[in-house]
Write a structure and sequence with these properties.
Layout (H helix, E strand, L loop, with lengths): L1 E4 L9 E7 L6 E2 L4 E6 L4 E5 L4 E6 L6 E3 L3 E7 L10 H13 L5 H15 L2 H24 L14 H16 L2 E9 L1 H18 L6 H14 L6 E3 L2 E3 L6 E3 L1 E3 L2 E3 L2 E2 L7 H17 L4 H4 L4 E5 L18 E5 L3 E7 L2 E15 L5 H16 L2 H5 L2
Parallel strand pairs: 12-16, 16-17
Antiparallel strand pairs: 1-8, 2-4, 2-7, 3-6, 4-5, 6-8, 9-19, 10-11, 12-15, 13-14, 17-19, 18-19
Helix pairs in contact: 6-7, 6-9
Length: 383
Amino acid sequence: MLEIKVPVLPESISEATVAVWHKQPGDLVQVDDVIVEIETDKVVLEVPAEEAGVFTKIIAQEGETVGAQQVLGTMTEGSEIQDSEPSESETEIESETQEDAPQESAPQIKNETSESETDEKSPESQQSTNKETLAATQVSTQQQSMKPSGNRMEERVQMSRLRKTIATKLHSATQNTAMLTTFNEVDMSAILSMRKSYKEAFEKKYGVKLGFMSFFVKAAVEALKKYPTVNAHLDGDDIVYHGYCDVSVAVSSDRGLVVPVLRDAHKMAMHDIEKTIIDYAARAQAGSLTLEEMMGGTFTISNGGVFGSLLSTPILNSPQSAILGMHKTQERAVVVDGEIIVRPMMYLALSYDHRIIDGREAVQFLISIKDALEDPARLLLKV
């Protein structure tokens, strides 16, 4: 008998939740077949079969909280199958026994008793019973007429461990920081023109499309170098400054929002940024991101524009002190050199912890990003 156990959990995690059983008792299991998925605060871990055999028993049900090395289920080695169905001989014996057994007469006795009791009832009691039955029928009819029509079904579903973690972190950020948001808008004409001119050459050389995120990451990195407080965080009474830029990128998945990190983003080329983000997005949907890939980060960028958001106030990704919110690019009438013209515009939002970042720094940081995006040559010249 083989035991299926919870794998060794990362150092910062003490428990997990059984998410989905992929095998049921009686199923054949091959080596490396995924038997069950367990969900931690950050990632979903797959538990594969180390040996071939037959899955026999589920011990930890879906939704149950489990700890490291706890037994989840059992299986047998090889092709031993525990047949819980009765054999043909047992079935035949049981059938013959049922045929030879005398038929019960209890229902007939009960019916005869009921008839005799009815005969003994007086006309007055029968009339009283009829009135009570009629009254009960009228009440039932009234209750049915009061019931709302249409589909008003409700479903109660327990929050997943990942959703609980997201809720806890976001609530903590709003309660434990002095969060403030400043806004600006950026003319995306230069970025769109550059993408149109070089997208084919870029994709041909690097095998990846030129998107918006690489421009924003590059612009954010240059702004973080100018304003290091935005790249810092509070630790008790200390301010921790980072000599590097690990940019967290918010990625949406079916299981919830995850935030993998672009390590040393200040050293990454634009094609490396695009490739890494595409890889993170694909693995977020598959649930195969590792905990290490989502830990740390000194600054976050969230792109609500891909879902059509025009303006929002992003919530801090604690313990970080700032987060940049991108939004939908939309043509709007703007005034340029005293003339009203139509330009593709995007609202930018910077939420920051006012305990560590002053309003002047936050505004100047956001303007630095705006200037770099409206004149991409600044990213090459780093001015």
